[in-house]
Amino acid sequence: MTAFYIPNARGRIMRLQKLFIGLIALAWLFVGACDDGGGVTQTVVPGQTDFVSEETNQPGNNSRDNWASPGGPELDGQNGDTAAPAPGAPPQGRTGEVEEADIYRVDHNRLFYLNTYRGFIIYDVNDPKNPKVVSRLPVYGYPIEMFVSGTTVYALLRNALYLTQTQGKLQFKRHNVSQLVAIDISDLKNPKVLKTVDIVGQLREGVSRKIEDTIYVVSYVPQHYYWGWGYNHNKEQEQAWVYSFNVKVPKSPKLVQKLKIFEGGSYRIQDPNTGVYLRRYFNSVAISATSNTLTVVENWRKYGWVSGAKYQCGSSVSLQQAIVSLIDISDPSGKIRLHAKFETYGQLGDQFKQTYMFDKATGKATYYGIFARREWNSSNCSGTSFIENNFEAWDVTDGAHPVKVGSLPFGKHNETVRGSTFDRDRKIAYAITAKQIDPLYAISFADPSQPKILSQIDGLSGDMNVFRLIGGGNYLLGIGRDNSKVCDGFGAPGTSWRSSGVAVSIIDVRDVNKIRLVQRQCVAVKNAEWVGSALNWNRDQAHKMIGMHTDSRANVITVPVYYYKKHDPQSGWWWYQRETAVGLMTWDLAKYDDTKDPSHQSVLDNYGTLIHPKGEVKRSIVFTHKGAQDRRMVINLSDTHLSVFDIEDLNNPIEESVVEIAPYYQQVFRFGNYLVEHIGPRSYYWNYYPGSSNDGAKSEFRVKAVGGQLEDAKVLASFTVGQVQRVIKAGNKLVLFRYVMKDPTKGSAYDNLESQALIFDLSVPTAPRATGKVTLPQNVMPYYRYWCGDFGYWGGYWFGSSSNFTVVDGGVAFLSSTYDRTASATTYALVFIDTTQAYAPKVHTYPLATPAPWYYHGIVPDGTDKGAFYLNYRHYLGKTTKPDGRVLYRYKYFSQRWKASKNGAGLVSESPINLPGRLIRAFKGSWGRTAFLTHDYFYVKHAVPGETYDRYQSNFRINLLTENSLLGKNVASLLDSRVFSSFYLEDLVINGDKIVINAHRDYYYQKENNLDWKDLSDQLIVLDTSAGTLRQTYSEPTGTYRVNLMGVHKGKLFVNLPGDGILVVDMSHPGQVIGQKFLRTLGWATHLEFANDTMYVAAGHFGIYQLDLKGPVAIPTI
Q1: Which of 445, 588, 734, 748 is least surrounded by Cβ atoms within 10 Å, i.e. has the fewest?
Q2: Strands across the sheet with 475-482, in order?
Q3: pLDDT at 482 (0 to 100)
Q4: Domains in the chain and their CATH numbers?
Q5: What are the Cα distances from residue 1033, in Å, to 981, 1001, 1030, 1072?
């Protein structure tokens, strides 16, 4: 008699007679699934081999059974604390130079660059044709700006995340801080971090100043700032702080003082009885500094609404509020105090709209600010708006009692102030208001109580957003937009915004009672449309973006711009492509003839543009390059590239070099003792258009030896392929997938692409070979969320999602679906790329039965056979009505095994196996047979919180089965099942005989326990299958929020904190789950590879991170 095996609960193997098991199975065929009473859906029992699922989804609806999404009202804010002014004399006496931080410094043909992606980099540009990286120091936060002082760099970072864990538990707390980092560069080849100091809140460019030996930093926390995990991010109140650091001893920056400017202040109030709704919220912060003061302006918005009677309009009002804090920084030791605090209407947009002056003769201290006031209100179904720009003077001599002593409204109707600057020596402010035609104003504040407009230039086209005083303060250089047809400053506006340009203007302000335009020139870009520049919207930092340089030969200005060009390759398909450049001009005030109008001046000379290869230029640096002969040069910096131009001869600029700073590392693959880097475009969009260069349409594959820092390793071999969309590893081969545009004169708009697969043989990694290419249907393209080394694609199982492909020995299999718009029907097929003959790959297509009630769910690899996989599908059986009248839909789920033949003949299928729900994984059980892990839903009636009716609650259920033989056919017998009541399962990975599940509490649990949906963390659950059961060995909250399980390698679980980093969890010890290491990765790191004990993480422009997996626990415990 034939026997088969089932493990019992104690792990022993029981021998049973085939006839006896056959009778049990036949009984199930006739009895079917049982109700558990009271409207509960079907149960399953050990030994069952026939399964029918009852679900809430109708045929054709394949979404998750998730009936309630988490959500809830926002928490009302609270009125906050504000610091009170401290008594003291007005700030005065200090004369040190105010230094503003930046992202670069040029010194002796060396470039120090704090790069967004790569951290702190030192370049040697002695040879401008071949700039060399001297050294690089990664930083584990987002770089903002830096000060360079002697041999020390003080870098400011945002979101320098680190984790701590609870003693004895896999439970974590995150710490999002900003940091001041001191870096020693005395040895340029080996920069070292000396010290880091945490700063509460976040930073942006422009919030720091250095005066002598003191660094001042303003940090701020907007409402809903992401302090911690997503479930508690609403618990922080908006706030702002001023930090002072003494850096007299460079190697040990010392925190002198931390002053809280404000905390809280936002509110949201709604009275259901009166219909009154009030809201106040924090919008932004602006800072500026003199040698004696740091001025911080909080910009707030207020809104109020009162509902009207039935069928009538209500009333509403919206206001802006600015709160000015004047910080005394006149003490060189770094001690600070709040001298004055007051509020006024409007918003202060950037640092150039305020200043502070102390008059020694009178002992008076005055604050000057330019505020844009924008309000609106409505009543009885009609509304009005109000826009006004105000120049205000405040006497702050007595800091406890500041008094507004003067105010001057200026600007035309509906015009908002744009660029501005103060000439403190002449006590003049220049400001331009803009709509389409601008006036530029010269405002005198010689008498603070009576500020007045001395003169104005009306009718200027466009606007100006950054000003610089030149010619000893007698002229004003402005940069902004020009929307005229000819760019002469006063022309009629163009008919399309595409014709607007970026313009440089010079204003004659010798006589402030009669200011006039000298000349205007637009940056010249041939065949360009939509020309713009970041300096037009970032007025606070615009002055850093431009380059200005004066030598004995010329006054040079460079202006970064972006623009769009129409590309029209021979294929007939065209598109607009974004490009970047730097406009190059000079000015010579000696050529100014004030008897001529602006159109006949020759003060400005336009030398066209310097094209930058990739990325928007953030800084343009004009400098004198020291060498055998001094030469004028310009370095243009974007986040990803550096370009060097020789502009000694302005009529013939020479591109000396282009350096790739931050290539986009998409993936890294291991082949034996070698690693292959895939460096490609940041986005796949447009890459399939022939001739497209958008974001670098070519992908380069670089082969390097394992060992040391991968990015610094020598490239042993490389190859380049265009239009690559996806790459997968199949044995000793790389399969590259790309889209190719068809002839536009053929086919329809829905079928204009074809997919290609290119095979590269890396059996000898140092000699990669292109061996073959096949054409595929358009919809055949591999998609996966994570790659975790030899674990395979897709990382883990994603509940409710499916994989459309799998790699097997001999090829790659795809589940393909095609929608016929004429027949309104979807057809399915298995497409197999046979790579057994590398130089002659074949494509085999197997149409799948597609009767109306059938639906295919994806492909699952066979963990017991590298040459096989399972195809998942379900069959609709019909409806069933429960005793309470609820209608459910009945399905049978199947998995069909397919195996690749070894002779290149394609795939061979076997009979499908009925399973309870979708197959998650097929693996070898500890009892020696194939084990199946599936998931379905177990429904129970549940009272809806706060309602009078019931609903069916879907609970996730995991089923463990084993493969058996019944009446000559393969079947799956149920061993065990586990229902996860009140849990929502996110993802799952398998580690030997352990199942690791990432879950969180569901909607019903949250409501029943009166919890907000943001107040719950992830939960890690571990199940042990070694005894043929789903025995739970671990289930604890992790303190994390919406993380993803990436995979398992050598007993270690890898968890992705999206956008934050990779958490390594040691699961090699029985009964223990230990958080071992955390790798902070900026960007979205989704691709892991392993070589020996090193993990490699491809993280886009941020590069390839490496982590040594050996060693002790490196996450601090609390």
Answers
A1: 748
A2: 463-470, 475-482, 501-508, 516-522
A3: 92
A4: 663-781 (2.40.128)
A5: 17, 19, 9, 9
